[in-house]
């Protein structure tokens, strides 16, 4: 239904090997983008890339640990070589934690901040520089969370704080990028059934008892918003965040 929308564009998706990232990769690819599936898990990323290539699409799996900060410049340069630059960056890679507030340790805190927040900043900074050099604008999309807006419940305070940081950094990139046609927007998913979602306590509840829409979210529910923020459909929107949670934030 959206074939051709992203024809000629190149999208890099971190955490694209499974869950929300995989769904985003498949939707961007269906819309015509060449996709770079950047994930620490090269097996899942490779399988997604192989599947898309077998359908005649442009795709490549890139081994990337987003928290390997020193390697980010060379990884972005490598990604930009593949299909001719980068037009869309989707920051999906992330981990969660679910410790009671009294049991969060300094090392656990640092791990969450490194992967969920610091990596988002330094990878986006690198791609932002490239987009400025390219001179053809760009779309930056970041996965935050409902936890950023109402505090961590199943996930913990360190995760909620990192995801709240993403909302702010997204606005900073939006301000810095506007004059160059570089857009930055964030997405705040509620309870989405993915491998990460299944590790959290909400997945043991009956969604009809607490989610107004009465079901968990699917990765596709989130991928539609990724597509929206990655395309010309959102060309007058920057520094925004979309809540996709079945009514959990009413
Ligand atoms: N599932 C939910 O309910 C939910 C809700 C709100 C926000 N989110 C956010 O959405 C994003 C995707 O969540 P998901 O549920 O699909 O998670 P997931 O655990 O199912 O998938 C995460 C992906 O990120 C990759 N990854 C993890 N660490 C990495 C690293 N250091 N470098 C590169 N890749 C790495 C994993 O290999 C995996 O492919 C995350 O940022 C998450 O915080 C998820």
Describe this structure in words.
The chain is an alpha/beta fold and 250 residues long. It has a single domain, classed as Rossmann fold (3-Layer(aba) Sandwich). The protein has eight helices and seven strands; from the N terminus they run E-H-E-H-E-H-E-H-E-H-H-E-H-H-E. The chain has a seven-stranded parallel β-sheet, with helices on both faces. Helix 4 links the parallel strand 4 and strand 5. The protein starts with 9 loop residues before the first strand and ends in a 6-residue tail after the last strand. The model has no long low-confidence stretch (mean pLDDT 98).
Ligand species: nicotinamide-adenine-dinucleotide
Return the CATH architecture.
3-Layer(aba) Sandwich
Number of strands: 7
Global structural class: alpha/beta
Rg value? 17 Å
> Could you tell me the mean pLDDT?
98
Query: How large is the share of residues in beta strands?
Result: 15-25%
Number of domains: 1
Q: How far apart are the first and last residues' alpha carbons, in Å? A: 30 Å
CATH superfamily: NAD(P)-binding Rossmann-like Domain
Envelope shape: globular
Looking at this protein, list some descriptive labels.
single chain, 250 residues, alpha/beta, Rossmann fold, seven-stranded parallel β-sheet, globular, binds nicotinamide-adenine-dinucleotide
Topology:
Blueprint: E1 10-14, H1 19-30, E2 34-39, H2 42-54, E3 59-63, H3 72-83, E4 88-91, H4 106-134, E5 138-143, H5 146-150, H6 157-177, E6 182-189, H7 195-198, H8 219-230, E7 241-244
Parallel strand pairs: 1-2, 1-4, 2-3, 4-5, 5-6, 6-7
The structure holds nicotinamide-adenine-dinucleotide.
Nicotinamide-adenine-dinucleotide (NAD) binds near residues 93 and 94.
């Amino acid at each position: 239904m959206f074939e051709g929308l992203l024809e000629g564009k190149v999208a890099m998706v971190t955490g694209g090997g499974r869950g929300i990232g995989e769904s985003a990769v498949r939707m961007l690819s269906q819309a015509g983008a060449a996709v770079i599936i950047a994930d620490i898990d090269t097996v899942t990323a490779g399988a997604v890339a192989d599947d898309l290539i077998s359908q005649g699409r442009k795709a490549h799996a890139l081994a990337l640990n987003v928290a390997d900060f020193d390697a980010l410049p060379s990884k972005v340069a490598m990604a930009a070589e593949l299909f001719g630059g980068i037009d869309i960056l989707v920051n999906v890679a992330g981990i969660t934690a679910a410790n009671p507030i009294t049991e969060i340790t300094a090392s656990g805190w640092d791990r969450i901040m490194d992967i969920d927040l610091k990596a988002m900043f330094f990878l986006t900074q690198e791609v932002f520089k490239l987009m400025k050099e390219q001179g053809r604008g760009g779309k930056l999309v970041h996965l935050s969370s409902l936890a950023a807006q109402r505090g961590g419940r199943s996930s913990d305070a360190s995760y909620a704080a990192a995801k709240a940081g993403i909302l702010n950094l997204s606005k900073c990139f939006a301000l810095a990028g506007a004059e160059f046609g570089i857009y930055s927007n964030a997405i705040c998913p509620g309870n989405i059934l993915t491998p990460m979602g299944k590790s959290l306590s909400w997945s043991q509840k009956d969604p009809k008892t607490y989610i107004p829409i009465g079901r968990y979210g699917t990765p596709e529910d989130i991928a539609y918003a990724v597509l929206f923020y990655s395309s010309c459909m959102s060309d007058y929107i920057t520094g925004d965040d979309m809540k996709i949670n079945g009514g959990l934030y009413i």
